[in-house]
Amino acid sequence: MSRKNEITVVMAKVLLALMAASKQEWDQVVCRFQSTEKTQNHFQFISRKGRQLHPQHASAEYTGLLGPLMHSLFDELEKEGKTRPLVVVLAVDASKNYHLKLDFNNPHAHDISLSGLGSDGSYFVGNEVDVPG
């Protein structure tokens, strides 16, 4: 397994632990990490049950684990000659399958916020989730 995959698996386990601690019903948890510089990090978390999205709070315990892991992933990408991403979105479902999306150019890409639903930059496309009224 590559170092990038190892890091991603550990991040997925952190998200699974976050949801286990939340006691909330869920099908998928999504973490969006934006970092324009190593010292400026921004996290967003949202959980999904069916077509419904629910903002998810993550304590410093989880962001403290995920931040260095995200930067390690960025470092591994740079070692491969790629540019450092601005945005990483990691989605993990209840069956422990994960999916990683990166954006290298747009710090607003893959928005997971409820207010961003339906916009061109939304992570959720088409009608896969309900847009709150």
Structure description:
The chain is α+β, with helices and mostly antiparallel strands. The longest helix has 20 residues, at about 5-20. The chain has a single domain, classed as Murine Class I Major Histocompatibility Complex, H2-DB, Chain A, domain 1. It has helices at about 5-20, 60-80, and strands at about 30-35, 40-50, 50-55, 85-95, 100-105. The model has no long low-confidence stretch (mean pLDDT about 90).
Supply the CATH architecture.
2-Layer Sandwich
List low-confidence stretches: none
Write down how many β-strands occur, each being a DSSP E stretch of 2 or more residues: 5
| First and last CA, distance | 44 Å
What does the largest sheet look like?
5 strands, antiparallel
CATH superfamily annotation: BH3703-like domains
Strand-residue proportion: 25-35%
Averaged pLDDT: 91
Tell me the count of domains.
1
* Rg computed from alpha carbons, rounded to a whole number of angstroms: 14 Å
Can you give keywords for this protein?
133 residues; alpha+beta; Murine Class I Major Histocompatibility Complex, H2-DB, Chain A, domain 1; 30% helix
